[in-house]
C-alpha cells in the first residue's frame, strides 16, 4: 500500500505569513509624519468604538431598570384580537398606525367586495342557480315567504347582479396585493361556493378563506406607495386616479349599483329570510358605500379598527405604554392574559364544526386557558367583546334563551344577558384556576376606539372578582346549549 508522507508543519512560517498581521502592518516606507497621522486616526477610531460600547451598555442597563409587561392575547377566531392589538397601536404608536392607512384601504375595499358578493350569492341561492359567486355559510330555507321573495327578484335586480359581476376580478386582484408570495394560507372559516348540493354536503367542502400570516410582511406590498404619499395621507387628501390598477376605480364605478342593491327592500327581506346579518359581521361598510368608494378615500382610525383581515399564527408586538402608571401596579411585572370572548355569537356555530355553538367554544377555550398550569401565575383579564352586536341582536328579537337553554325565561335584554354571561365566565375562572388570583372583567366593543382606549389606559377599573382554588363541582358553569 502506498504511503504518503506529511510535510513538516512550519509554525514560524505560518506566523510570518499571517494575513491578519499583514493587513494590520504599517505601510512600508512610512514617513514619521504619516505614522503620526495613522496613530492619531487609530486612536480616534478607538475612542468612537469605546463611546458606542458605552452607549450600548447604558441602553442595556436602562432596559433592565424598566418594567416589562408581557401580555398574551387569546380568543377564538373573530373574537377581536387583531382589533385589540390595533387599539394598543393607536394608543401608544399613533404615527406608525396612521402610516399604514394605504394598506388598510385595500382591506376595506376587500371587505366591501365580499359583502356585496355575499348578497349576490344569496340571490343566486334563492333562484336555485349554480354560479361562481360566493355566499355566506347559510342553509337554504324552505318557506312560502322565501318562495315569494325569490320570485320577486325584479329584472332591475337581476341587471344589477350582472353589472356587479366584475367585483370578482376586483376581489382576486386585492387578494394578490394583500398576499405576496409566502404570506398567505387558508383557513376553513369562510364562504362556500353556490351549488345545487344540499347545505350539509356543501358545508363539508368549504372554499377556505385566505388568511394572512401574522408574521408576514403583507403591508410591505404598499410600502413604496406609502412612502410617496405619506404627507397626503396625513392630510386625508389623496388622489388615486393616477393608478390604472387601483381597485378603487372599479368600486367607484360600481358604487351606485352597490348602494341600490344594499338598500333594496326585496334584498333586505331576502337576507332576513336567510338569516344573513351582514351588519353584525366584522368588516361591514355597506352603510358607508358613498364614502369608502370615493376615488380619494383614505381610511379613518375607526375604519381601520373595523376593517377585517383574517390573520393566522403567533406574532410579537412591542409598545412603550403611555399609560404605564395605570398598568404597572395592575400587573406588578407579571405576565398577563387578555382573553376575548365574542358574546354576540350566542346564535352562531363554528364553520369548521357546525355542531358547536360559538359561545360554547369560547367557554371551553376559556376553561382550557384558565386551567393551564403554565399560566397559573399570569394575571387574567377578560373582555366580553362585541356587546354592541349583542345589544342589536337582542333588540331585534333574537332570543338568547332559545340558544342557551340554561338561561331559562329570564329577560331578553342586554343588562340581564350580560350580567348572566359575566357571572358564568367568572364561575369558570373560580372553579378551574389552579391557584387563587383576581379576574378583571370588561364588557367591550373593540371597534369603539374611545371606550376601548379608556379600558386599556385604566385596565384595573373593571369588575374584579377573587378566584378561589379549583374545586370539584361539576356543572358550576351551568351552560346548556340547544343543538343547532
What do these coordinates show?
- The chain is built from 21 helices and 10 strands.
- Helices cover 48% and strands 10% of the residues.
- It starts with 10 loop residues before the first helix and ends in a 17-residue tail after the last strand.
- It is α/β, with parallel strands linked by helices and 484 residues long.
- The protein has a 5-stranded mixed β-sheet with strand order 1-7-8-9-10, sandwiched between helices. A 3-stranded mixed β-sheet has the order 3-5-6, with no helix packed on it. It has a two-stranded antiparallel ribbon with strand order 2-4.
- It is flat, with a radius of gyration of 30 Å.
- The model is unreliable at 129-140, 186-207, 224-233, 323-333 and 460-478 (pLDDT under 50).
- The protein has helices spanning 11-16, 19-24, 32-65, 81-92, 94-98, 101-127, 144-151, 155-163, 167-178, 199-202, 223-234, 247-263, 265-273, 289-292, 301-306, 324-331, 358-370, 387-395, 400-403, 414-432, 449-457; strands at residues 71-75, 134-135, 184-187, 192-193, 209-213, 311-312, 336-342, 379-385, 437-443, 463-467.
Structural class: alpha/beta
Tally of DSSP helical segments: 21
Task: Identify low-pLDDT runs.
Answer: 129-140, 186-207, 224-233, 323-333, 460-478
Task: State the shape.
Answer: flat
Helix content class = 40-55%
Spatial strand arrangement across the major sheet: 1-7-8-9-10
Largest sheet: 5 strands, mixed
Overall residue-averaged pLDDT value: 75
CA radius of gyration is: 30 Å
- The strand count comes to 10
| Residue fraction in strands | 5-15%
**Gap between N and C termini:** 83 Å
